[in-house]
Amino acid sequence: MNNGNVMGVFIGLESATYEYIANIIAPYQTNFELEIGDFLLIENMGSYIVSRVTEYRPTGELTSFMGQKWLGDVASNLDAIGLDIKEKKIRYTVRIKILGSLHNKTFRPGVTKIPNITSKVYKPSKDQLHEIIETVNRQQSNGKEIGSLYSDKDIKIKFNISELNAKRTFVFARAGYGKSNLMKLISSDWPKNEGGLVIFDPEGEYAVTDSKKRPGIMDHREAILVTNRRVDTKLRNVYRYMKLNLREFDPKFILPIIVNPSKHETVFFSKLMGMEIDDWGRLVDLLYNKGWRADLSEVAEIVTGSDEDTNNFQPVLNNLVSPIRSLHDPDSHLMGIITEAMRRDEVVLVDISLLDSKTALQLSSMVVKWIFDHNQRNFIDQDSKLIKATFVVEEAQSVIGQDSNYASFIELAKEGRKYGLGGIFITQQPGSIPSEILSQADNFFVFHLISRSDLESLRRANAHYSDDILTQVLSEPIPGKCYMWTSFQPFVLPLTVNNFEDIVKPDRSIEIQGNSDLLTDIKAMLQNEDSDPVNASIIAKYNEVERAGIDPGQRTIELYNRLDENERSYLNEKGQIQLTKENVPFAVKTKYYNSLKK
Question: Per-residue pLDDT for the chain (598 aa), expressed as one digit of tens each?
Fold first, then answer.
């Protein structure tokens, strides 16, 4: 039998849109402590129906027309209304949403047996409530404790961080209500064997202790910080090149990102897209060194191989000088460092707070697209070659919103899961996210929101966020209160998220990072790749091709033909294989071939 409190009797069940709603009648009690969101149990032939309170209101004679008239007459002396009158003439009608059943201490979602009318309704005991939440949260039993049930701090809520790997996750929160705290909790215990984590940090708030003494991720675990801020020189694992070496990339990869989409149909863009990678490298060097002073005839010669009408090449300067100046650094190894960190399942914090918004989005887009394209190329051999990574994207509405032109992030949101990539998209404007993306999400963490259109978008995308839940999201501006749903949960769990500041001490980043050679090891590996036996074998075969006196136009093909499967796999993983229009590999890339010259 139930050891909880009897609250009333069951009087019927109705089917609403995609959910079962029941009604119960509860008598007047002086200690009536029912709240919206409370769990209730209905006796049901040896088991219990589990439900959640969505609405309750007083009924009975005192709420009738005559009852209200009488109450008005005695309003000046309400103490005169005796307990016996209240018990006889007041009752409560409570609407509840059916969540599942509890049988032999096991919760099961859904309902097949309907309780009898007059079945007793209980408020669950502490043990029963624990059984319900534990069963619902069972998929996360090996996860990290991220908080406690909002209504009972003794019932802990866990989240398995592996559920973020190759999944779509949304965090909806207004500023100051806990999204940064949640991400610090998750990131600070990011596990091995789940791929790497890249956080694009637009406020510079995640890495180290801030001016308000709020600790950062590097105060708790080793991680790489990429920043152009001034940080303590004693802090290790800091990479200070906030740019990329644009010469490394194929123009077909980079131009769609750095040139405005409105210019993609123009003649100059088509000419740039047709450039060889060596010529692209020369153009980057020219515009980086000379900027607006670059000679248009030199630009024309690089782009087309002739000094045709130079006026036709002014758009090249107009569209490339600014992004190259903003994004290019010939000494940067940033992409290689991030890629290798992902292979090692590490955390990388990319502090884009001092970049203008356009440059920050372009830099972030290139990082996402580089790894996405790598995994897309290697999808067939995914077990050995895919780079598992999860990207944290703040202000997500600006990159995957209805009017976004940032294809890299849209690809990540729509197809990343297929290629082993996860995305954690953070925004306070869920209404701006396309419904076809939002409805496919695997995890939701919802904090306080105030826009009706945003709440409606969330309800349409995920019916588990029903009106009673959304009413609480709107009306309860409580920092740290979160409504969590994952794809294995039958209903939303309201929880209080643990405070990162109670777990991690501030100003420990120098000590924590001082015990790590993470960045040093990665940089050394990138600089010493020539010592790799596979790479050494490729260089030896390159020298054979050079000595053979083969037509220069055929040497990249000849080198490819001489490579064994292991060597081809090595270069394919690095994106150094050329493909035909039918995606058939046939040669090594020209720029890579030329880089082998000693």
Answer: 455 578 889 898 877 667 788 888 888 777 767 888 999 999 988 889 999 999 888 787 777 777 787 777 777 777 767 777 777 777 888 899 999 888 887 888 888 788 888 899 998 989 889 989 988 888 888 899 999 999 999 999 999 999 999 999 999 999 999 999 999 999 999 998 889 999 999 999 999 999 999 999 999 999 999 999 999 999 999 999 999 999 989 899 999 999 999 999 999 999 999 998 889 999 999 999 999 999 999 999 999 888 777 888 999 999 999 999 999 999 999 999 999 999 999 999 999 999 999 999 999 999 999 999 989 888 875 556 789 999 999 999 989 887 666 789 999 999 999 999 999 999 999 999 999 999 999 999 999 999 999 999 999 999 999 999 999 999 999 999 999 999 989 999 999 999 999 999 999 999 999 999 999 999 888 877 656 778 888 988 888 888 788 888 899 999 999 999 889 988 987 888 999 988 899 999 987 888 786 5
Structure tokens at 502: 């109670």
CA 336 to chain centre: 22
Domain span holding position 440: 159-245+330-520
Helices marked H in 328-451: 334-343, 357-377, 382-385, 397-400, 407-415, 435-438
Q: Which of 486, 520, 554 is the last residue of a domain?
A: 520
Structure tokens at 119: 């079945």
Per DSSP, what are the bridge partners of residue 121? 8, 42
Measured at the CA of 119, the angle between CA 117 and CA 123, to 5 degrees, comes to 135
Q: Are both 315 and 341 inside the same structural domain? A: no
Q: Which of 309, 327, 345 is the last residue of a domain?
A: 327
